[in-house]
């Protein structure tokens, strides 16, 4: 199921599909957030902003406004 990162919950495994803003995409790619990356949402602040994801052991915190521009695919729940 495709959605944006801002709509994911803690513990959900996701795959990054695309980043809709080219300016932000460049910065996120430099930090390791690339297309086809399989990752997991590890933390969401109490008011929903920011959202933290695990990138190969590195925790990246992303503002909700930016997370809305990141299209992800949720992993199938078994």
Could you describe the 3D structure shown?
The structure is a single chain. The protein starts with a strand and ends with a strand. It is 17% helix and 41% strand. It has a 6-stranded antiparallel β-sheet. The protein has 2 helices and 6 strands. The model has no long low-confidence stretch (mean pLDDT 90). The chain is globular and about 30 Å long.
E-strand count:
6
| CATH fold annotation | SH3 type barrels
Count of separate DSSP helical elements? 2
* Straight-line N-to-C gap: 14 Å
CATH homologous superfamily (4th level) name = Ferrous iron transport protein A (FeoA)
Spatially, the strands of the biggest sheet line up as 1-6-2-3-4-5
Largest sheet: 6 strands, antiparallel
Shape: globular
List low-confidence stretches: none
Query: What is the N-to-C order of secondary-structure elements (H for helix, E for strand)?
Result: EEHEEEHE
- Content-based structural category: alpha+beta
Query: How many structural domains can be distinguished in the coordinates?
Result: 1
Tell me the CATH architecture. Answer: Roll
Task: Specify the CATH class.
Answer: Mainly Beta
Rounded average pLDDT: 90
* Structural Rg: 11 Å
